[in-house]
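Minutes, project check-in

Agenda point 3 was the complex the collaborators sent over. CS summarized: two entities, 591 residues total, and the question is how they sit relative to each other. Sequences were read into the notes so everyone works from the same version.
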Amino acid sequence: MFPRPIQQSSAPAQWVYAIALPIVLLLWLFPLLGVALTSLRPASDLAQGNYFGMPSGIAWENYIFIFTETPIGQYMVNSLWVTIPTVIGAVSLSLMTGFALAVYGFRGNILVFFMFVAGNFVPFQILMVPVRDMTLQLGMYDTWYGLALFHIAFQTGFCTLFMRNFIKALPFELIEAARVEGVAEWRIFWFIVLPLMRPAIAALSVLVFTFIWNDFFWATVLTQGVDSQPITAGLSSLNGQWIAQWHLVSAGSILAALPPVLMFFLMQKHFIAGLTLGAVK
Amino acid sequence: MAQATGISAAPSARRWNQRTLAPWLFMAPGLFMFTVYVLWPIIQSVTLSFYDWNGLYNQNGEFTGTFVGIRNYAELMTDPAFETSLWNNFYWLALYLLALPAGLFIAIFLNQTVTGIRLYKSLFFFPFVISQVVVGLIFAWFYAPNFGLFYLLTEAITGKGTAILADPDLVTFGIIAAGLWPQIAYVMILYLTGLNNVAPDQIEAARLDGAKGWRMLWYVVLPQLRPATFIAVIVTVIGALRSFDLVSIMTNGGPFGSSRVLSYYMFEMALGEFGFRMGYGAAIAVVLFAIMMIFISGFIWKMWRDETER
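CS then shared the predicted structure for the full assembly.
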């Protein structure tokens, strides 16, 4: 193990480590903690210049205010309307593409695979004008499905890479054996491979959820109004209205950050498995 | 598809057909979506970059752009805003790579087995999970003039506070620092996973040979972390070139356009207040795409080698 386990060091060194750990963490998360505290600070404190001292009270009303006086609740609902269909769509499509690319040695296999992988890294800007134009033409501008359809297509690239590698690592004999038995291909997919894919599905679902929830660029390009804007774009426009009302900006930020943070904590193992794909041989 | 008519030939012929056709059927929906939303738009953007177009159609629904050849690209060459964006992208790229040593350092710091370490690791990872919009707002608060912590800190040290987001010379570095926060967290998690898989017998053997500290890290550990480093470089480069959210949230490219990057400048040209210059925007996007292609082909080339080795 590298570095040498701290338990093998001298007692003082162990003490230093035990003390350093929380201090470093505190420094690392300092900006986030500052914002979390500001979100609970009464507006009157900020007006008097009390930014970092003891707050005069805990102001839950900041949160109540943004829920009752701004459409932030609607924005969060909109985000779910985009995020959940995207997760379902991208995972289902990539299960199939991944299966096809992992199991069949057809001509052009590797070409199609690399195309999916490369598409993943393309800068969004090169897609922006045509995708926006197409969405407008199809009458899907400023709707949740217009945004979700694009996300499904784009995320399919990354998900295919993941699924294909996952299926490749499964024992191929399973499929061979089924073929010898005369099982149809779609049944192999449905009854043999799919049940084994649960960890991959879980990992991709949390990852795609987080990516899409946090997406700002496409939300700005493909939606406009309160009825369909997701939280990221909504928060950005609210920020424009709340100039320097940091207690509100902070409360909004914390709210927008909450769902992916919860997702991460609940599904930590899967999240990290998905993210570190390829980091080890 | 040739239908097998003879009864005796049916089983094997049908099998064969099924197995040739199956992958394409499985891939059809994914390929269709990907072609419509990713591949085709790339071709369209490249084409569009040779046109002058305001994004509108006439009453008959016809395209109103005019072909201008390479004029958009010629204009880019003399556009000072484009030059600023290009330079800023270069700074982003160079400084973003600091996430690698920083992430490795934190990963080594956290790679212990004391009580509660799992919670520590996930809390360190936090910045990556939250949206860049939120990261941008957090840092805007951190940098805010007069009361922001950074401002107060510089005031305490130099006697004069620095409002970094209002300073044309420093603004880009302020935004990059904000971007590094989640990026370091990402690299850290990659290296933590890598460190977990370092062969313990090699470490022990090197230790017996008297290797420790930096020498151990450089000659024994880092070579084993190569796959993690590779992924970290790729995601960091892509992240640097994709930087849009932070610029948009923190400064809108300002002050005086000094924090623009290519991705943001493109957006400004095509959809911003300067009017709908779709063709010019597309030309900027093509340049960005070309820069990205250098790295994408490197990645694909390595994957190709790994695939064919097997």
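Noted in discussion: Chain A has 15 helices and no strands.
Follow-up: revisit at the next meeting once the mutant set is ready.
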